[in-house]
User: Fold this.
Amino acid sequence: MAFPLLALQQMKLGKGLKSPNFNAIQVISSAIEEMNSPTDEQTALIRITLEGRKMSYPDRYQQENLLNLHKAKMSIEQAIDFLSQ
Assistant:
């Protein structure tokens, strides 16, 4: 099995998939800070949305947008956690 060793050697040489540098991680962290944190009311709306409760149109679009922003922020935070390990 030569390919596993070759794959690890390529990582050591900086070929192919590699971790972003510190500056890139700082930029990603800045995006999280810019997104801020949800208010208590927004948190409550996110919770009921996750339970499947939907508002009527046209407010539903904003409700879904809020949930998508929340999911995006959580995913970015998770990515930074992975990269920091």
